[in-house]
Design brief:
By secondary structure, the chain is of the alpha/beta class. Helices cover 32% and strands 26% of the residues. α2 packs parallel to α3 and α7 (198-218) packs antiparallel against α10 (291-307). The structure holds zinc ion.
Length: 551
């Protein structure tokens, strides 16, 4: 059975053809199952393809679970076509069935179905084929590779559940790159090692990556780390910080070693498909050789997480830690632009080079927190609870009203993006003040204990200053606006009373007036200063409502 891409190397099969291909495979082979799994924004269901020689087709905790996602960006469809050929080879005896024992492969044929249905030939202006392909935005025009935490799309909601049903140790999400020109067809983004951390980062960094690079070279598709260049590759490249909003960062938050293979847009489509298939095979080959190592590493990683107390939640590239890679590029040159008359960049394919270039791949923590034993989330935030549940998080409910002791965060300074970003006005650079308090909680509120497999995910979504927290993604914006104010003419008399009863407020007030001339001339600001320090000022303004419990 040929794939449509094999019959025409510049063709990429569409959504309907792709599902039909897997369905036909499943009719003829008993080690593959094709199921509908949840909804997508397009109205079409998401599909999971399972390859399992044990024929259980259910998650087996003793297996290596290898999860592949395709078509998140349907304009970059190499994985959609490569996976069909690869899965067929697993079914038709090209590979010895015994060599697949103990391995479960879970594959999403097309993730962004709405985007895949929106086919054209122009949206990827700089890409060499295929002749038709889908669009980056999904049915709601969201980039699904930013949606893994906020889950605005049904696609992401289904994905969260499917991913946590399988809890894979290894995850691959197939892409095509933009950017510089160079000699390689395949580039690789491994999940950021310092963010992944623990046993899984060690296995990836010290064993798996070198195997993948060697194996790909052996197959004729020498790889380079993804070319995330300063300006041109000669100036050096960075490792990519894949936060939890991205597929590989999301997978890493759940402990999976994850990769985004990115084929180069300027290479022929046939080569991009072939090199993607080679990558999927190379990964499988590593798994076949090292099943025990992978299982041990994942189990150890989770055990370490459970013991861990201090968690990094944000990172920045460490420019001091400069590494190097041997890179096969084309010399970047400049010539006058016909359009603008200014100098324009081009890469001279007649002037290839091979040289060592700087590589900054180490990230250092900028924020770390001590994990609480539990979080208490008011039941009003059911959209947050729903997302936790989709991620396999065990939540309990408070049985009866009670006063509890713990801490809460007061939101201090923060910034908000000025234009819409993926359906949100994302907050960042969030500063907090932690306060010990006694707080009333109510029957039906939710308790989320951190001592569970999803510990890392729980912390990254509930600590408001983490870059992909639910707070950052606007789930708690209600607290950012003051609901009650005062009338100056009435408050005047009360303010006098407050100052006479509270000498400490009076001292602070006089001090501010002396220091701040603008303040000294602004009557409303002065009254507001006193108001904010009085019991009339609402306690809940800027108070993050999720409580941290420490015992
Ligand atoms: Zn992409």
């Amino acid at each position: 059975m040929h794939t449509l891409h094999e019959l025409d190397h510049n063709y990429s099969s569409d959504y309907i053809e792709t599902i039909a291909f897997y369905t036909a495979l499943a009719e003829n082979h008993d080690i593959i199952q094709v199921n509908e799994y949840g909804k997508t924004d397009s109205g079409h269901p998401l599909h999971e393809v399972i390859i399992d020689v044990s024929k259980s087709f259910q998650p087996n905790l003793n297996s290596v679970r290898y999860f592949v996602n395709n078509g998140i960006h349907p304009g970059e469809p190499c994985g959609i076509d490569a996976s069909q050929q690869w899965v067929r080879s697993l079914c038709d005896g090209t590979l010895d069935a015994a060599s697949l024992e103990g391995i479960q492969i879970i594959l999403i044929p097309v993730y962004n179905i709405g985007g895949a249905l929106n086919r054209g030939s122009h949206s990827r202006a700089n890409q060499d084929g295929p002749k038709e392909y889908g669009f980056r935005g999904n049915a709601k025009n969201l980039d699904l590779n930013r949606d893994f935490i906020k889950c605005d799309s049904k696609n992401a909601q289904s994905f969260n559940q499917l991913f946590n049903k399988w809890s894979p140790q290894i995850f691959v999400d197939t892409h095509t790159s933009n950017g510089a020109d160079y000699q390689y067809t395949m580039t690789l983004i491994p999940t950021q090692k310092d963010r992944l951390g623990g046993a899984q980062a060690e296995l990836m960094q010290n064993d798996m990556l070198s195997y993948l690079y060697e194996k790909m070279e052996e197959k004729g598709w020498e790889m380079t780390p993804y070319v995330y260049a300063r300006k041109t590759p000669d100036d050096g490249i960075y490792g990519f910080l894949d936060l939890a909003r991205y597929s590989s960062g999301y997978a890493a938050t759940h402990g999976a070693i994850s990769f985004m293979p990115e084929t180069h847009m300027l290479k022929p489509y046939k080569d991009r498909v072939a090199s993607t298939k080679a990558f999927l095979e190379s990964m499988l080959s590593y798994i076949q050789k090292n099943p025990q190592k992978i299982k041990n590493s994942y189990d150890l990683h989770i055990q370490e997480l459970l013991k861990k107390d201090q968690f990094d939640i944000n990172w920045t590239v460490d420019m001091e830690a400069q590494d190097a890679v041997l890179f096969k590029g084309y010399v970047a040159k400049y010539k006058p632009s016909v359009i603008t008359g200014q100098d324009r960049l081009y890469y001279d394919r007649n002037d290839p080079y091979e040289k060592s270039i700087p590589f900054w791949n180490t990230y250092k923590s900028t924020t770390s927190i001590k994990a609480p034993t539990a979080y208490i989330i008011p039941q009003a935030y059911d959209d947050v609870i729903q997302r936790l549940k989709m991620n396999g998080v065990q939540v309990d409910q408070v049985q009866k009203d009670a006063m509890v002791t713990g801490s809460v965060y007061k939101i201090g300074d923060f910034k908000t993006r000025e234009s819409a970003y993926e359906g949100h006005y994302l907050h960042y650079d969030i500063e907090l003040e932690e306060m010990e308090i006694q707080k009333k909680i109510y029957a039906g509120d939710y308790i989320v204990k951190t001592q569970q497999q999803a510990k890392r995910y729980i912390i990254e979504v509930l600590e408001p200053h983490a870059p992909d927290s639910f707070f950052a993604w606007n789930f708690f914006d209600g607290i950012l606006m003051q609901k009650e104010h005062f009338s100056s003419y009435v408050f005047e008399d009360l303010a006098v009373e407050i100052l006479s009863k509270h000498p400490e407020i009076k001292v602070a007030f006089e001090h501010k007036k002396a220091q701040d001339s603008e303040f000294a001339e602004n009557a409303r600001a002065q009254l507001n200063f006193i108001y904010e320090q009085s019991p009339h000022y609402e306690y809940t303004h800027m108070l993050y409502p999720v409580m941290r419990i420490h015992n």
